[in-house]
Amino acid sequence: MAGLEVLYTCVTGSLTCPQDALVCFVHWEMIKGGYRCIGSGDEPRSGDRKSELLPADWSSNKELYSLRYEGADAKMLLKAVPVDSAVIFNLMNCSTQQVTDLTVNMKDHVDADHLDTFDRSVVFINGDGLSEKVRAQLLPPQEKKAGRRSLREDEDEAGGRRRREEDDPLRIPSRRPGPGTQREPAVPPFATGGADLDPFGSRGGGGMIVDPLRSGFPRSGFDPSSGIPDILPPGAVPPGARFDPFGPIGRHRPGPDPDHMPPPGYDDMFM
């Protein structure tokens, strides 16, 4: 925590109570946050100037500490009020009137018996934790200034977004063709009903009649041109002709078992 020892040494003569040490600590956190103290009190004065040091009368009122700060884009008003064993800090943005606050227990962070000589590990108890509290709860968050992005950064971000979309298993593909994709051949506007005019699909389209001999589906070993025993002689059906069987193939197929569906209680000897 470079600089705190110098600041503490400069105001050692004004440190008479634990709340003085806490105000000094919070002041230095304001300085590290980019602010400069321009005076004490609520109203500006003619002799105000930016400084990293505390004003001469910063601890004249032990019941209410009031310090004014100026940053790059805002003026802040810091007030500290001791209440019992704690100190309540309020920081207000003079332009937006937004207020942040922080309550610090003096016994948890300041050793009142070692205020005369600076030793960070002795005067301030858990100084790192106190510093984190001040930055997180009291100081306004530092806004990142948006700089001008390069074309390469925009392209990398767009590429990363496309890769994430392509890897998403729940993404519905877009119907709009992307760059470099081939469009499907357009369907002629008057092609509706073509399957009715070309039922067998001889022009390369899909016909409305399915020929089992030319449909490409696996065929059984039955060839109607070889004839059907006791029904059609060989050669009655031309080779390759469409043929729908009009009866069972073969008349000597085994019939159903007479006991296929026996009546209830058929094995009763008295039936």
TrEMBL record:
Residues 189-248 form the PI31 proteasome regulator C-terminal domain. Its main location: cytoplasm. One of its GO terms (molecular function) is proteasome binding. Keywords: Acetylation, Cytoplasm, Endoplasmic reticulum, Methylation, Phosphoprotein, Proteasome. Residues 13-115 form the PI31 proteasome regulator N-terminal domain. GO terms for cellular component: endoplasmic reticulum; proteasome complex. One of its GO terms (biological process) is ubiquitin-dependent protein catabolic process. It comes from the Eukaryota. Residues 135-271 are annotated as: Disordered. Gene3D superfamilies: 3.40.1000.30. Residues 158-170 have a biased composition (Basic and acidic residues). InterPro entries: PI31-like, PI31_Prot_C, PI31_Prot_N. It is found in: Cytoplasm; Endoplasmic reticulum. Belongs to the proteasome inhibitor PI31 family. This is Proteasome inhibitor PI31 subunit. It comes from Oryzias latipes (Japanese rice fish). The gene is psmf1.
